[in-house]
Every structure is written in C-alpha cells, then in structure tokens.
Design goal:
This protein has nine helices and 18 strands. It is α+β, with helices and mostly antiparallel strands and 343 residues long. The strands form four sheets. Strands 6, 7, 8, 9, 10, 13, 14, 15, 16 and 17 form a ten-stranded antiparallel beta sheet that branches. The longest helix has 16 residues.
Amino acid sequence: MSSPPVALVYSPFAGSADHADPAKLLLDAGLDIVDVLTITRLRALNPARRAAIWRKAGVRAIIAAGGDGSVGGVATLASQANLPLGILPLGTANDIARALALPEDPAAAASLIADLIASGEERLIDAGELVPAPGAPVRARSTGGHFLHALTLGLNVEFARLASDISQRQRWGKLTYAASVLESLSRFTPIPVTLTIESMAGQPEGATQAITASIALLAAMNLSVFGGWMELRLPTVREDDGLLDFLLIEAPALRDLADMATALGDFFTALARSEPDATPQEGGALPGARWFRARSVTITTPDPVEITLDGELRGRTPAIARVAARPARMLAPRTRVAPRATL
C-alpha cells in the first residue's frame, strides 16, 4: 500500500521549530512528502499553478508546520487548492491547534494527520477572509488572505510586530510575549476607525450599520481558544455559525496599565459567563467595549493602518473582513473537546 502524498509548508522561525524536524515527523507517520516549501515562499507562489502540480502528484493534504501565523498563512493556499489542511503545532501559542483539540505533541499530531487522511475524516470550520476595500490605494491591494483564529487591529498589531522580531526573541527568550505586551502598551496611540457592518446578527437581512470610534483594539474572532498553554476559552465564539465575532474596545480613559489589565480581565470573565449561543451585550465590565456578530465589516481609517491575521502582519486598511464563501477543510477530529480552562 503506497503512502499518502502530502505537501509540507513549514516555518523555520516557529517557537519550537528547532526541536522538531517536520519532514521527519510526517515520514515517520507513514506519509509521502512530494513538495516542501518554507512559509516565506508563499507570497511568490502562483496558487493555480501549484494546485495543478499537486493534483498531478495526487496530493491529499497540505500540512502547515509552525505556529498560528503559519497555519493562517497556509489556510489561504489550502482553500485555493481545495485541499484539507493539517497542523503540526510547532509555535509558541498554537491556539488554532488547541481549539481543534489536536495533540500538543508534534509526533502525535503527525500520526493523527496520517490516520485522518486514511479515513477521509475532515472537520469544516468557518474561515475569515480579509480583502481590499473598493477604492483602496495600490499599496493596500496586496492586503488579504484567510484567517482561522483572529484578525486584529490596534494594540495587538504592535504586539505582533514586537513578538515576531528575531532580535526581540533572542533577547527575551520565553519572556518575549510578556515583554512585547508591556512595550506595545507603552507605545500605543488610539486609532480613529469607521466600521460599516453588513448582516449583523439580530438585524434585518441586508441592513447596514456604521460605528465610528477611537479604538484601542478591534478583533474579529472565529475560534474560542486563546492564551496558549493556559487554554482560555470564550464559549460565545463559534467556529461554524457563518459569522465572525467582533470585539471593539474604544481607547480607554484608564489611569495606567494596571487599570487596563484588570478591566480587560473582568471584561473577558463577563463574556465567558454568557451562554454559548447568547449574543454578548455591549458595555459590561470594560467601558467602551462592544461585541457583535456579523458576516462582513468594512474597516476604514484616515491613514492606512496595519492588520494582523492569526498574529501575522498581512493586511492594512481600508479592507473588508468577512466570512469566506468556502469553509476551511481541517484535518481534525469532528468530536470537539472543551479546553481545560474557561475565563
């Protein structure tokens, strides 16, 4: 019996990439690797041409080896090729893998991938998509791609820039995330933003609504797990409801960073106490916070602002965040397992 052929896209910069050889893990699991790419080569690829090569080789799946940013980047290519996506979790947080109840051990994850390919089992989840808004300047037209976990604008963008900086990682090691949080908070200035919301949950079909605010953070989420090893969970976020959950936090009038951290903790705790199918309400523990679900939101700012997709800088305003027309085909068990902790 021949080994199932797969394509491998890996990140040499992932948090634990130096401790595991993704190609060896897949080969040891009985898979045949017919194409190997680094994550940095994705932008230069012609997706249609690559998909044709893979079809000719009989590729059964694309495997993303790395952290959330790598998985999110490969998700675009997997969708264009209409192939299922497997994950070897080699990053620092691995929130996407955790949300899908995948093994934390890379060797066990490789073995599960081989089993799922052999059985044909897949799990369909919503994919978010970022595309340039009509009339976007030339520089913004390269914006976009799929995201599986979250899109962010504001505080988290500066954090992502710092946390992914090689010199920062070499300096702080395991403390990189904590150091990046503090530095991003100290550098941040509020961002004026206008959101044009279409198909908001609870509103008439086709109705639009506009929100104008000066924000600290905008996030569009599709998977409920975050926080890396802590496995924190927001049960209000669903992976298959055809909607994205948007969190907008206006620039706070808080006295210091300690106030902000305490207020954010209280806010997420309040959200987590909601029923899983309930629509979170505005306000609550954090002043200026709004939460809503929608299929599409156009994001505009006075000047172009960078956007992260699954923790990587992959877009800028003006842009449209929406649910992708085609769900993501994931190599993950259909039976869901709740994370260990709930905020």
